[in-house]
Design brief:
The protein is mainly beta and 78 residues long. It contains no helices and five strands.
Length: 78
Amino acid sequence: MMPKKMTETVKTVYFDSIELLAMESAPVQFLITLKGKLPTPCHKLQIEANPPDAQNNIVVNVSAAANPEEICAQVLTP
């Protein structure tokens, strides 16, 4: 995933758990529950869910972006 602004840096999100539920609906809908930590308190969560591809796979990109010029504690944040 690319940063939204050229001044942002993108980092990894650290997951504790990921849960995928198929809802009983027509058409089928899915609910993803992500639990984890951001790299620092200054990072903002970014989620991008793409429509299904030709094989019906749905790719979800999860990252965290922050301003690299902002002073921030270097501690994982729930």
